[in-house]
Structure to design on (147 residues):
């Protein structure tokens, strides 16, 4: 039964390709412009319809007309040439003896200076002193005139 099913599928496959080739020849198109998927869909639509054996030729012509109408239109040329896609992730593979993770240790050295002896950071201006005033302390002369 499986062998019979396989032969039946191969026969249908060849019949669909023959239908596509005949449709392309009738419309003076290259066979590559008739999609196999559209041919299969058109054949499925026509199978459920009732028709007598005398109407078979007319039914095949209707399916061919559908395929010609749905033919793939020629595409414009490529804007960029085809390029081979690089495979892989961009990360190197681990050797079998190499561990999956590595441990990294960083050392940070800090020097603490007294408040009045701090050096200015290299290549940066000195940080200005910011003085804050609360409501009880007297305002400097320029701030008092603005207020």
């Amino acid at each position: 039964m499986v062998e019979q099913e396989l032969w039946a599928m191969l026969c249908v496959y060849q019949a669909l390709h023959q239908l596509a080739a005949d449709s392309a020849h009738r419309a003076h198109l290259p066979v590559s412009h008739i999609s196999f998927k559209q041919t299969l869909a058109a054949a499925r639509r026509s199978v459920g319809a009732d028709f007598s054996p005398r109407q078979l030729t007319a039914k095949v012509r209707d399916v061919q007309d559908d395929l010609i109408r749905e033919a793939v239109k020629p595409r414009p040329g490529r804007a960029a040439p085809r390029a081979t896609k690089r495979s892989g992730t961009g990360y190197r593979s681990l050797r079998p003896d190499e561990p999956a993770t590595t441990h990294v240790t960083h050392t940070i050295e800090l020097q603490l200076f007294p408040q009045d002896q701090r050096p200015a950071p290299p290549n940066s201006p000195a940080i200005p002193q910011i003085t804050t005033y609360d409501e009880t302390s007297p305002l400097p002369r320029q701030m008092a005139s603005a207020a």
About this structure: Residues 142-147 have pLDDT under 50 and may be disordered.
